[in-house]
Amino acid sequence: MELFKKKTLIISGGAEGIGFAVAKAAGHEGMNVVISDISEATLSSAEQTLTDAGISVLAVCADARHEADWRRVADAALERFGGIHALMNNAGVGGAAGELESMSLEDWRWTIDVNLMGVVIGMQTVIPHIKAAGGGWVVNVASMAGMTGIPCGGAYNATKLAVAGLSEGWAVELAPHNIQVAALCPGFVKTRIYLSDRNRPDDYAQSDRPLITTDEEALAEGRTVIASAVNGGIEPNVLAQRVIESVRAGDPYIFTHPDFRPVVAHRYQMIDQAFASAEASPIVGHIKGGMGDANPFAGSD
Ligand SMILES: NC(=O)c1ccc[n+]([C@@H]2O[C@H](COP(=O)([O-])OP(=O)(O)OC[C@H]3O[C@@H](n4cnc5c(N)ncnc54)[C@H](O)[C@@H]3O)[C@@H](O)[C@H]2O)c1
Fold it and tell me: Is the Cβ atom of 154 under 6 angstroms away from ligand 1?
């Protein structure tokens, strides 16, 4: 099945950073790209840049948290290009990581609404159209933060673990429809993710913490650790080439930083040891699966 040429891809949060880089790379592969974003200003300059590069692009201002916005994006894509074959659920925010007690529930809600519910609503809205087109592909943007629990990782960590896990299930669920699903798990990538407060909508209560929307504010608040890690990250264009390569290969996970492998290996070792402990337990050691023929994991290997 042709995955790129003359196919149509929707990317949420496509105005800058990772989403924009993938829009450009996919456009160069011959795709029509639909970029949606909450930021009208960056969206229109992204549209211009892609048009100037000879890419067939449609830009739709939309908030990934809202179902009606997603429907508008899908309708506009169908009207302009006649079908939808691929989706990149990319819109995301860094939220406000920190110690457990320090994170406000409003920051939890914001991060979950964008990073998790944005993906769920994107899938629910767009997948029926990809099915109708006979199949295609999905990349859901998780993170290396979706591969393990991180101390003080907060809502960001939670949403990325959720997106990675959901994507594994959706890959099995949607395979019969010729739809491949991958979770993209990058390490640090040089974008403005550490200034995500610039996209914190007013419909959440005023934050007690100072919002970090510029490099000067990050510096003034001493929030330079994440900023310098992100600024030392890989270029978005490198990541975009990796996405194209992995979609072509049909990989279920897309990694960009192979040196994180031991971190994930450690997690699975820890889980495996916990199973060994359960097997040795006089209380539960004799218990067998209990799922019988209804094993939901059947067909996943
Ligand atoms: N940069 C990294 O180091 C890194 C690492 C792993 C994963 N990620 C993930 O990559 C994805 C893209 O982030 P990025 O690094 O390019 O950051 P970015 O801030 O440069 O880009 C995020 C884009 O999403 C848009 N956006 C924010 N809230 C939105 C909303 N409610 N609706 C629609 N659009 C919205 C922003 O306007 C922006 O264009 C995110 O999901 C992020 O968690 C980033």
Answer: no
